[in-house]
Structure formats: C-alpha cells, structure tokens
Design a protein that fits this description.
Layout: E1 3-19, E2 22-27, E3 33-37, E4 46-48, E5 56-69, E6 72-84, E7 92-99, E8 105-109, H1 115-122, E9 129-135, E10 141-147, H2 148-155, E11 166-172, E12 175-180, E13 185-190, E14 196-201, E15 205-208, E16 215-218, E17 222-227, E18 233-237, E19 248-253, E20 259-266, E21 269-274, E22 280-284, E23 298-302, E24 309-313, E25 322-325, E26 331-335, E27 343-356, H3 358-377, H4 381-394
Antiparallel strand pairs: 1-27, 2-3, 3-5, 4-5, 5-6, 6-7, 7-8, 8-9, 9-10, 11-12, 12-13, 13-14, 15-16, 17-18, 18-19, 19-20, 21-22, 22-23, 23-24, 25-26, 26-27
Length: about 400
C-alpha cells in the first residue's frame, strides 16, 4: 500500500425539502437527479404495521418520483401506492428508481407485509412490483413488469415468514437485480424476462432478545446492492430486531454466488456505493442502533483495500435512506427518509485527504535521497535531472521543489 485517499466533508447543501419519505435516488441520462418518495399513506384500507405492534398502516396513492434539475424540484410521477401510519410516517411504497443503458426508467414498489394482504385486503396490485416508468409527463404513467410478491409467496427462499419489501434496484447490462429486504434475498431478471432468478439468501443468526433474555432468530434484512471493481455483487444489511450497533455486515457474493462477509462492524446499513478507486461508501440509517436513543445516521468510507475507514458525516444526517455518487464525486443523500413532509435531499461536497503508509514514506525518502546524493558527490547531472524532472510524477510519496 502506497497511500490511502480518504474523503473529508467540506460542505452540505440542501437541494430539496418537504419530501414524503424519500428513499433511493439516481441520475438519469438527462443529468437530472430522480428521487423515489415512498409517500405518506392515506385513509384507505389498512394492514398491520410491520414495525409498530398493534398499529396499522393505511393505503393512499401518495407515492411519487421527484426530479431535481437546475435548481428546480418537481414531482414528475405521482399517484404511486403508499402505506403509512396515520401520521404519514413509517411508509412503504416506491423505494428505488434506476435507468438502463438506453435511459429507460424503472422503479420498485415495496410492501413490508405478506403479499396475501396486498391481494385480499388492499387489492392494490402495484405493491411488490417492478414497474417501468413509461412517462414523466402529466403526472407520469407506469406499467407493471414483474410481481415479486408472487415469487415470495410461491417460493419463500429464506424459510422465514412469508414477507416481501422490495428495497433496492440495480440494473447492470441487461439484468435487473432486486433486493427484497422482507424476504432476505437478492433476486434477478435477465433481459427483464418473466422468470425470476434467486441470486442469494442472506443468513439469519441467533441472538438474545434484550427484553426477555430469550434466544431469537435475527434476520439479515438486506438493503442495497452494488457491483465492485472486481465485478462481484456486494450487498448491505440493516439487521432485524434487536438491531444491535456494530453487527451489520457487507456481503460479497463469491464465484458460487454464496454471500461471504467483506466487511463488518457497521450499524443498520441502508445503502452503499463504490467510487472509481474501489473505495466503498456505506450509509447507516441509525448509527447508534434503532433501539437506542438518537436518530443520527452516518456516512462511512471504507478504503479500497478494506483496511481503513473514516466517518464522513454523522450528526448532519437524520435517518438517511439513500445514497448516490455524482459524476464529480459529490455525494447525494436522501435524508429524514421515514418522515412525511420533512424529507430532504442533501449534496455533500468532499475533499481528499491523503494518508501515507509510514514505511512507504521512509523507503521513498531513502531511494530518492540516494539519487540526490549520487548526483551531488559524483557530479552526475543525468541523475539530478532525472530526480528533479520526473520524481514527483513517478512517486506520489514525494514532492520535488526548488529552493
């Protein structure tokens, strides 16, 4: 290792506010930033809340996709299905938007429930679907492409309760990858065909219920997928109850498509993204753990070798839910992601701080000092010219200056 360039926060700008539970976000081919808003529910049919015992979430067509471009913020797709508590919080609805290589837009709609509730109680078929966005004009329009809720109902790969909550969409070449946080799996569609392929199931683990002392099964709750520079798929996890701090992991799918731990020690991760050098940005929804006080999230950077990490932003983030890297390296984050009417999109400007390995610095000093000494003692003008003219370009560990 010669150096580690660790990004440092230099500024935060609010690009959009007043959003209803913003989730994942993505740039279109037009250069605009598109944000999935899960909505605020409504006053329609209700099903049990997945997170508040004894409460119900109510249906309303309040989900949306918002476009941010040239300082303008506009809801360009409206009327998407949403479920939320009566105050509009804890929403499930459209959770991600992605674009293929031709600029076509796709989105996924969550549910956080047994798909039977969608079919018999809500009777709103757009939940738990991959949809194509046909138009961004006049409130938008969309077409259902694949029913992932039906897949969970028929297969239930993790063997836990039948549950689906589509949370992350990744399109690579001609394949769509869908992370189902409720089903604890990663699914794919080749060429957007009707056949769903199971890529991986993320393992549960045995933990202790902090309130009863009983042994319980903690689900993984995968939340995001990204492709590394090595071409492998990497998947983050939130972790289920009791949501302990420091137990969330980043998995890498190996050649047999089995998840292996790439990095651990995170807390309630909701999104991840690689930069051009192979460094990994990890977004934590709640840096202290969901059962503990506080609602500050965190943006953490993991160096390309996986050995060094730094927290870029902490208290500046309130329950963030989505992460995207801009073409110039700026970071875009959906903030306050489970609150109706208070959601934001933030732009984080970064600067790079270079940290050198000390052994590398010492070795570089010995090597280049030796050449300088040779040029001085032996009158070797060629050695002097070589160091002066090329040293700084060939070795990032040194700077050659004249006095």
């Amino acid at each position: 290792m010669t150096e580690v360039k660790m990004p440092q926060l230099s500024g935060i700008e609010v690009l959009a506010s007043g959003l209803d539970s913003p989730r994942k976000l993505n740039f279109g081919m037009d250069g605009a930033l598109y944000v999935a808003e899960a909505g605020r529910g409504g006053t329609g049919a209700s099903i049990p809340s997945p997170s508040v015992p004894g409460a119900s979430v109510f249906y309303g067509a309040t989900g949306a996709i918002t476009r941010i471009q040239n300082g303008n913020v506009e809801r360009v797709v409206t009327g998407l299905p949403s479920l939320a508590l009566p105050n509009g919080s804890d929403a499930a609805g459209v959770s991600d938007i992605e674009f293929d290589a031709n600029g076509n837009a796709y989105a996924i709609v969550g549910l956080a429930s047994n798909p039977a509730n969608r079919d018999t109680v809500l009777q709103v078929p757009d939940f738990s679907q991959l949809i194509a966005i046909d138009s961004f004009e006049n409130g938008g329009s969309w077409t259902r492409l694949r029913d992932f809720g039906a897949y969970e109902q028929a297969n239930n790969p993790d063997g836990q309760n039948v549950d689906t909550n589509l949370y992350d969409l990744l399109i690579n070449d001609n394949t769509a990858y869908v992370v189902d946080a409720g089903a604890n799996d990663l699914l794919s569609l080749q060429a957007f065909s009707s056949e769903v392929n199971l890529e991986a199931v993320f393992p549960a683990r045995d933990v202790t219920n902090p309130f009863t002392g009983e042994a319980i099964v903690q689900q993984s709750v995968p939340t995001a997928a990204a492709i590394g520079l090595d071409g492998a798929l990497y998947v983050s996890e939130l972790t289920g109850f009791p949501f302990q701090a420091g137990t969330a992991q980043i998995y890498r799918l190996n050649a047999e498509e089995q998840p292996e731990v790439y990095a651990g020690g995170f807390t309630n991760v909701v999104d991840l993204a690689f930069d051009q050098s192979g460094g990994l940005y990890v977004l934590e929804y709640d840096a202290n753990g969901l059962l503990n006080e506080g609602d500050a999230g965190a943006l953490i950077y993991l160096s390309p070798d996986g050995q060094t990490r730094t927290t870029i932003a902490g208290d500046e983030l309130i329950n963030p839910t989505g992460l995207e890297i801009g073409a110039n390296g700026d970071i875009y984050i959906s903030n306050k992601g489970f609150v109706a009417g208070q959601g934001e999109v933030l732009r984080l400007s970064l600067e790079q701080e270079t940290c050198f390995n000390q052994a590398t610095v010492n070795g570089a000093a010995e090597h280049w000092s030796g050449l300088f000494l040779r040029s001085h003692l032996l009158g070797d003008q060629g050695a002097f010219d070589y160091v002066y003219n090329t040293g700084g370009d060939l070795d990032p560990s040194i700077s050659v200056v004249s006095r």
